[in-house]
Protein backbone atom coordinates (compact mmCIF):
# COMPACT_ATOMS: atom_id res chain seq x y z
CA UNK A 1 0.00 0.00 0.00
CA UNK A 2 1.06 3.58 -0.64
CA UNK A 3 1.78 5.64 2.44
CA UNK A 4 1.29 9.35 2.79
CA UNK A 5 1.77 12.19 5.27
CA UNK A 6 -0.36 15.29 5.27
CA UNK A 7 -0.62 18.56 7.13
CA UNK A 8 -4.14 19.87 7.55
CA UNK A 9 -5.32 23.18 8.97
CA UNK A 10 -8.42 23.65 11.06
CA UNK A 11 -9.74 26.31 8.67
CA UNK A 12 -8.93 27.74 5.25
CA UNK A 13 -6.80 30.87 5.10
CA UNK A 14 -7.00 33.55 2.44
CA UNK A 15 -4.42 36.36 2.56
CA UNK A 16 -4.84 39.53 0.52
CA UNK A 17 -1.77 41.34 -0.82
CA UNK A 18 -2.56 45.06 -0.86
CA UNK A 19 -0.74 48.36 -1.30
CA UNK A 20 -0.58 51.49 -3.40
CA UNK A 21 -0.02 51.05 -7.15
CA UNK A 22 3.57 50.26 -8.21
CA UNK A 23 4.90 49.11 -4.84
CA UNK A 24 5.71 45.57 -6.04
CA UNK A 25 2.53 43.69 -5.08
CA UNK A 26 2.15 41.71 -8.28
CA UNK A 27 5.89 41.04 -8.54
CA UNK A 28 5.81 39.65 -5.01
CA UNK A 29 2.65 37.63 -5.70
CA UNK A 30 4.24 36.04 -8.77
CA UNK A 31 7.31 35.12 -6.72
CA UNK A 32 5.19 33.66 -3.90
CA UNK A 33 3.27 31.36 -6.24
CA UNK A 34 6.32 30.95 -8.55
CA UNK A 35 4.21 30.22 -11.60
CA UNK A 36 1.92 33.19 -11.00
CA UNK A 37 0.50 35.05 -13.98
CA UNK A 38 -0.30 38.37 -12.33
CA UNK A 39 0.50 41.25 -14.66
CA UNK A 40 3.29 43.45 -13.27
CA UNK A 41 4.16 46.72 -15.03
CA UNK A 42 5.34 50.26 -14.36
CA UNK A 43 1.95 51.99 -14.35
CA UNK A 44 -0.95 52.33 -11.88
CA UNK A 45 -3.86 49.83 -11.85
CA UNK A 46 -1.86 47.23 -13.77
CA UNK A 47 -3.80 44.67 -11.73
CA UNK A 48 -7.59 45.05 -11.95
CA UNK A 49 -9.17 41.69 -11.18
CA UNK A 50 -7.57 39.88 -8.21
CA UNK A 51 -5.12 37.09 -9.02
CA UNK A 52 -5.26 33.98 -6.84
CA UNK A 53 -2.57 31.40 -6.07
CA UNK A 54 -2.35 28.44 -3.69
CA UNK A 55 0.97 28.18 -1.84
CA UNK A 56 2.39 25.39 0.34
CA UNK A 57 3.46 26.35 3.87
CA UNK A 58 7.13 25.44 4.53
CA UNK A 59 7.24 23.08 7.51
CA UNK A 60 10.23 20.86 8.35
CA UNK A 61 8.06 18.76 10.68
CA UNK A 62 6.21 17.32 7.70
CA UNK A 63 9.48 16.21 6.11
CA UNK A 64 10.54 14.48 9.33
CA UNK A 65 7.15 12.80 9.68
CA UNK A 66 7.30 11.61 6.08
CA UNK A 67 10.73 10.06 6.65
CA UNK A 68 9.68 8.35 9.88
CA UNK A 69 6.57 6.86 8.31
CA UNK A 70 8.33 6.16 4.99
CA UNK A 71 5.65 8.07 3.14
CA UNK A 72 5.68 8.08 -0.66
CA UNK A 73 3.77 11.35 -0.77
CA UNK A 74 3.69 14.43 1.46
CA UNK A 75 0.83 16.94 1.33
CA UNK A 76 1.64 20.27 3.04
CA UNK A 77 -0.81 22.78 4.48
CA UNK A 78 -1.52 25.64 2.09
CA UNK A 79 -2.56 29.30 1.94
CA UNK A 80 -4.55 31.08 -0.74
CA UNK A 81 -2.85 34.35 -1.69
CA UNK A 82 -4.87 37.05 -3.46
CA UNK A 83 -3.18 39.88 -5.38
CA UNK A 84 -5.59 42.82 -5.08
CA UNK A 85 -5.57 45.95 -7.25
CA UNK A 86 -3.65 48.99 -6.00
CA UNK A 87 -5.52 51.38 -3.74
CA UNK A 88 -5.37 55.19 -3.96
CA UNK A 89 -6.44 58.04 -1.71
CA UNK A 90 -10.22 58.43 -1.89
CA UNK A 91 -10.93 54.74 -2.58
CA UNK A 92 -13.63 54.69 0.10
CA UNK A 93 -15.36 57.43 -1.91
CA UNK A 94 -14.99 55.55 -5.20
CA UNK A 95 -11.61 56.88 -6.42
CA UNK A 96 -9.46 54.52 -8.51
CA UNK A 97 -11.02 51.08 -8.30
CA UNK A 98 -12.62 52.19 -5.04
CA UNK A 99 -15.41 50.00 -3.74
CA UNK A 100 -14.40 47.09 -5.97
CA UNK A 101 -10.98 47.03 -4.34
CA UNK A 102 -12.46 47.25 -0.85
CA UNK A 103 -14.91 44.43 -1.52
CA UNK A 104 -12.01 42.17 -2.49
CA UNK A 105 -10.25 42.96 0.80
CA UNK A 106 -13.44 42.17 2.71
CA UNK A 107 -13.29 38.59 1.42
CA UNK A 108 -9.82 37.77 2.81
CA UNK A 109 -8.88 36.67 6.33
CA UNK A 110 -5.65 38.62 6.70
CA UNK A 111 -3.89 41.51 4.97
CA UNK A 112 -0.31 41.73 3.70
CA UNK A 113 0.33 45.42 3.07
CA UNK A 114 3.30 45.85 0.73
CA UNK A 115 5.21 49.08 1.39
CA UNK A 116 7.79 50.48 -1.01
CA UNK A 117 11.13 50.96 0.78
CA UNK A 118 13.42 51.35 -2.24
CA UNK A 119 14.44 54.30 -4.39
CA UNK A 120 14.28 53.89 -8.18
CA UNK A 121 13.70 56.80 -10.55
CA UNK A 122 12.66 54.36 -13.28
CA UNK A 123 9.68 53.09 -11.29
CA UNK A 124 6.92 55.66 -10.88
CA UNK A 125 5.54 56.27 -7.39
CA UNK A 126 1.86 57.17 -7.55
CA UNK A 127 2.39 60.08 -5.13
CA UNK A 128 5.68 61.28 -6.60
CA UNK A 129 8.03 60.20 -3.81
CA UNK A 130 8.88 57.22 -1.60
CA UNK A 131 7.25 57.85 1.78
CA UNK A 132 6.32 54.67 3.70
CA UNK A 133 4.44 56.48 6.48
CA UNK A 134 2.30 58.37 4.00
CA UNK A 135 1.64 55.19 2.00
CA UNK A 136 0.59 53.26 5.11
CA UNK A 137 -1.57 56.14 6.36
CA UNK A 138 -3.38 56.39 3.02
CA UNK A 139 -4.36 52.73 2.98
CA UNK A 140 -5.20 52.51 6.67
CA UNK A 141 -7.39 55.62 6.56
CA UNK A 142 -9.29 54.36 3.52
CA UNK A 143 -10.01 51.11 5.37
CA UNK A 144 -11.06 53.11 8.44
CA UNK A 145 -13.40 55.33 6.39
CA UNK A 146 -14.98 52.30 4.75
CA UNK A 147 -15.54 50.59 8.11
CA UNK A 148 -16.91 53.78 9.67
CA UNK A 149 -19.50 54.07 6.92
CA UNK A 150 -20.52 50.44 7.38
CA UNK A 151 -20.68 50.70 11.18
CA UNK A 152 -22.85 53.83 11.11
CA UNK A 153 -25.24 52.27 8.61
CA UNK A 154 -25.52 49.19 10.80
CA UNK A 155 -26.16 51.32 13.90
CA UNK A 156 -28.95 53.17 12.11
CA UNK A 157 -30.52 49.87 11.09
CA UNK A 158 -30.43 48.54 14.64
CA UNK A 159 -32.18 51.69 15.89
CA UNK A 160 -35.10 51.12 13.52
CA UNK A 161 -35.78 47.50 14.37
CA UNK A 162 -35.94 45.76 17.75
CA UNK A 163 -35.62 42.05 18.36
CA UNK A 164 -38.45 40.37 20.28
CA UNK A 165 -36.83 37.04 21.08
CA UNK A 166 -34.86 37.31 24.38
CA UNK A 167 -31.79 35.60 22.94
CA UNK A 168 -31.84 37.73 19.80
CA UNK A 169 -32.37 40.83 21.92
CA UNK A 170 -29.30 40.03 24.01
CA UNK A 171 -27.21 39.50 20.88
CA UNK A 172 -28.48 42.82 19.54
CA UNK A 173 -27.40 44.57 22.74
CA UNK A 174 -23.94 43.03 22.45
CA UNK A 175 -23.72 44.25 18.87
CA UNK A 176 -24.81 47.78 19.79
CA UNK A 177 -22.23 47.90 22.57
CA UNK A 178 -19.47 46.68 20.25
CA UNK A 179 -20.44 49.09 17.48
CA UNK A 180 -20.30 52.08 19.85
CA UNK A 181 -16.77 51.15 20.92
CA UNK A 182 -15.63 50.46 17.36
CA UNK A 183 -17.16 53.66 16.02
CA UNK A 184 -15.27 55.74 18.58
CA UNK A 185 -11.98 54.06 17.65
CA UNK A 186 -12.60 54.60 13.94
CA UNK A 187 -13.47 58.25 14.58
CA UNK A 188 -10.04 58.54 16.22
CA UNK A 189 -8.42 56.97 13.15
CA UNK A 190 -7.71 53.68 14.92
CA UNK A 191 -8.48 50.20 13.51
CA UNK A 192 -11.33 48.11 14.87
CA UNK A 193 -8.87 45.40 15.96
CA UNK A 194 -7.43 47.86 18.52
CA UNK A 195 -10.73 47.85 20.43
CA UNK A 196 -11.03 45.64 23.50
CA UNK A 197 -14.23 43.62 23.08
CA UNK A 198 -15.80 40.90 25.18
CA UNK A 199 -16.31 37.57 23.38
CA UNK A 200 -20.10 38.06 22.95
CA UNK A 201 -19.48 41.53 21.49
CA UNK A 202 -16.84 40.24 19.10
CA UNK A 203 -19.11 37.42 17.96
CA UNK A 204 -21.99 39.87 17.43
CA UNK A 205 -20.06 42.01 14.91
CA UNK A 206 -18.19 39.20 13.17
CA UNK A 207 -20.76 39.13 10.35
CA UNK A 208 -19.75 42.66 9.30
CA UNK A 209 -16.29 41.45 8.17
CA UNK A 210 -14.80 44.83 9.06
CA UNK A 211 -11.65 45.62 7.10
CA UNK A 212 -9.72 47.03 10.05
CA UNK A 213 -10.58 44.02 12.19
CA UNK A 214 -8.36 41.84 9.99
CA UNK A 215 -4.80 41.13 11.19
CA UNK A 216 -2.03 42.80 9.19
CA UNK A 217 1.57 42.08 8.24
CA UNK A 218 3.56 44.93 6.72
CA UNK A 219 5.88 43.77 3.94
CA UNK A 220 8.81 46.15 3.50
CA UNK A 221 9.88 45.80 -0.14
CA UNK A 222 13.57 46.71 -0.32
CA UNK A 223 16.21 46.94 -3.03
CA UNK A 224 18.63 44.08 -3.62
CA UNK A 225 21.44 46.00 -1.88
CA UNK A 226 19.42 46.31 1.36
CA UNK A 227 18.38 42.68 1.68
CA UNK A 228 21.34 41.65 3.87
CA UNK A 229 21.06 44.63 6.27
CA UNK A 230 17.49 45.95 5.97
CA UNK A 231 17.66 47.85 9.27
CA UNK A 232 20.18 50.27 7.74
CA UNK A 233 17.41 51.39 5.37
CA UNK A 234 15.69 54.47 6.85
CA UNK A 235 12.41 53.56 5.14
CA UNK A 236 12.46 50.10 6.76
CA UNK A 237 13.15 51.67 10.16
CA UNK A 238 10.09 53.84 9.71
CA UNK A 239 7.90 50.86 8.78
CA UNK A 240 9.25 48.91 11.78
CA UNK A 241 8.22 51.75 14.09
CA UNK A 242 4.74 52.00 12.56
CA UNK A 243 4.20 48.22 12.63
CA UNK A 244 5.11 48.17 16.31
CA UNK A 245 2.73 51.05 17.09
CA UNK A 246 -0.07 49.32 15.16
CA UNK A 247 0.67 45.97 16.84
CA UNK A 248 1.21 44.34 13.46
CA UNK A 249 3.86 42.05 12.01
CA UNK A 250 6.72 43.04 9.73
CA UNK A 251 8.60 41.05 7.10
CA UNK A 252 11.37 42.43 4.87
CA UNK A 253 11.71 41.07 1.33
CA UNK A 254 12.99 42.16 -2.05
CA UNK A 255 10.28 41.45 -4.60
CA UNK A 256 12.80 41.93 -7.40
CA UNK A 257 15.20 39.37 -5.92
CA UNK A 258 12.30 36.97 -5.41
CA UNK A 259 11.33 37.40 -9.06
CA UNK A 260 14.90 36.71 -10.17
CA UNK A 261 15.09 33.59 -7.99
CA UNK A 262 12.08 32.06 -9.73
CA UNK A 263 14.03 32.24 -13.01
CA UNK A 264 16.97 30.25 -11.60
CA UNK A 265 17.32 26.47 -11.23
CA UNK A 266 16.93 25.32 -7.62
CA UNK A 267 20.62 24.40 -7.30
CA UNK A 268 21.69 27.94 -8.25
CA UNK A 269 19.41 29.84 -5.88
CA UNK A 270 21.52 29.26 -2.75
CA UNK A 271 24.62 30.52 -4.53
CA UNK A 272 22.78 33.61 -5.75
CA UNK A 273 21.50 34.41 -2.25
CA UNK A 274 25.01 33.95 -0.85
CA UNK A 275 26.28 36.52 -3.34
CA UNK A 276 23.79 38.97 -1.80
CA UNK A 277 24.99 38.17 1.72
CA UNK A 278 21.90 36.23 2.85
CA UNK A 279 21.02 32.58 3.34
CA UNK A 280 17.26 33.00 3.01
CA UNK A 281 15.31 35.31 0.74
CA UNK A 282 12.61 36.00 3.33
CA UNK A 283 9.82 34.54 1.24
CA UNK A 284 9.55 31.42 3.40
CA UNK A 285 9.31 33.64 6.48
CA UNK A 286 6.54 35.63 4.82
CA UNK A 287 4.52 32.50 4.06
CA UNK A 288 5.00 31.11 7.58
CA UNK A 289 4.18 34.45 9.19
CA UNK A 290 1.00 34.69 7.12
CA UNK A 291 0.00 31.19 8.20
CA UNK A 292 0.67 31.96 11.87
CA UNK A 293 -1.12 35.31 11.74
CA UNK A 294 -4.51 33.85 12.64
CA UNK A 295 -3.12 31.40 15.18
CA UNK A 296 -4.11 28.41 13.05
CA UNK A 297 -3.22 24.91 14.19
CA UNK A 298 -1.68 22.27 11.97
CA UNK A 299 -2.80 18.65 12.33
CA UNK A 300 -0.54 15.97 10.89
CA UNK A 301 -1.75 12.61 9.65
CA UNK A 302 0.30 9.71 8.36
CA UNK A 303 -0.59 6.26 7.15
CA UNK A 304 -1.74 4.04 4.31
CA UNK A 305 -3.77 5.52 1.50
From TrEMBL:
**Is the keyword Nucleotide-binding in the record?**
yes
Q: GO MF annotations for this entry?
A: ATP binding; ATP hydrolysis activity; GTP binding
Q: Kindly give the SUPFAM superfamilies that the UniProt entry links to this protein.
A: P-loop containing nucleoside triphosphate hydrolases
Q: Tell me the ranges covered by the OBG-type G domain, including all copies.
A: 13-295
Keywords, comma-separated and alphabetical = ATP-binding, Nucleotide-binding
- Entry keyword Oxidoreductase: no
State any GO CC term. Answer: cytoplasm
Question: Matching NCBIfam families, A to Z?
Answer: redox-regulated ATPase YchF
Please identify the protein, giving its name as recorded. Answer: OBG-type G domain-containing protein
Native organism is Genlisea aurea
Q: What is the lineage of its organism?
A: Eukaryota, Viridiplantae, Streptophyta, Embryophyta, Tracheophyta
Amino acid sequence: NRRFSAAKISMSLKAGIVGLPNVGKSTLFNAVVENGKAQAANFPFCTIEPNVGIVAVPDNRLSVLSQLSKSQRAVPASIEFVDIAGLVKGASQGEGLGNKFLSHIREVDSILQVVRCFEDDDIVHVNGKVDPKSDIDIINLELVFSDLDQVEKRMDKLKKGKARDPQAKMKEEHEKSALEKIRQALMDGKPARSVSLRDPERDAVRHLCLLTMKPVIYVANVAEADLAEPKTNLHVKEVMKLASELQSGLITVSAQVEAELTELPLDERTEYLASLGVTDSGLGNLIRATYNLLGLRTYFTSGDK
